[in-house]
Amino acid sequence: MNSSSHKAEYVPYHPERIGVPPLYAWPPKPKQALRYLLIDVMAPWGYFWIALAIVVWHFLTPSMETMQSFSPGWIALLWLRNAALLSIVAGGLHWWFYIRRQQGTDTKFVGPWLAQNDERFLWRDQVRDNMTFSLVSGVSFWTAYEAATWWWYANGYIHTVTFTDQPIYCLLMLWGVFFWSTFHFYLNHRLLHFKPLYQVAHERHHRNVVTGPWSGISMHPLEHAIYFTVFLLWWIVPVHPVVIILTGLFQGVSPAVSHSGFDYLKIGRRFRITTGDNFHNLHHRFFRVNYGNSPMPLDRVFNSWHDGSEEGQNVLRRRNREARTS
Known about the structure:
The radius of gyration is 20 Å and the shape is globular. It has a two-stranded antiparallel ribbon. The protein has helices at residues 3-7, 30-40, 45-59, 72-99, 126-154, 167-192, 195-206, 221-227, 241-252, 254-258, 278-286, 298-301, 310-325, and strands at 264-267, 271-274. The protein has 13 helices and two strands, in the order ααααααααααββααα. The longest helix has 29 residues, at 126-154. It is an all-alpha fold. α3 (45-59) packs across α9 (241-252) and α5 (126-154) packs antiparallel against α9. A hairpin with a 3-residue loop joins β1 and β2. It has one domain (20-269).
């Protein structure tokens, strides 16, 4: 462990102001929109999830024949596969940022570290609490929805689409996963902020005011049951099997990256890779803003957008005052 990074004083980090993606600009900006789709949305993590989904489909997924009937054996293998993938990504990021503290507080969104001796969490430990809910509940619901989707396809209730027959459609659906997931997340997230559902379920996720990689899908089981309904679109829209796996990876593993608590993972002086999502980080900190994600700016439409600037913070303060007096 880098002892010097433990002693380093936190220097406030100021991420770039969050703008509305050029994809939604008017008048249209075709070049900027294309760059946004190919680079901003996809590089590097989007391409990584797609590549990983291809590998998982070919080498780590039972055959369609096997999945024609529900069996504890192949479903357990899916669970182990999903748990391992989440553990590698979340565990690796946690080791780098929070155990080794390799880059100290450099690009860390907030000063405090993950909670210990806090009665809000199981065993009074945020990391152990987050790991338990992510693996025991989160991976189980992810696996259940994925297994049901495989059974649906394996029995011919909906036909798979191949790259050979429809290459353009398959490519578009790979991109579509990221936008469908974002749209679905906004809808279910607003639902979970409905007071009764919030008190019963979503409040548990919001205990993570300061987030870490294991916070990503650390949720109440009821929230997991809602969150992973993202798979249900593929019960009526035919896709290639890689799309089904990509959906699980993006919904189940990518939140470990976006909740890392750091804007970038830095190696040496020059290499850095984006990890955190300040847009969602602001939601964890301020609650009534940024219910969705920036690739689909529904928060802008419904007046809950916070761009991370002081101006955005002033707007939030005004809204909070109005909410208290109403």
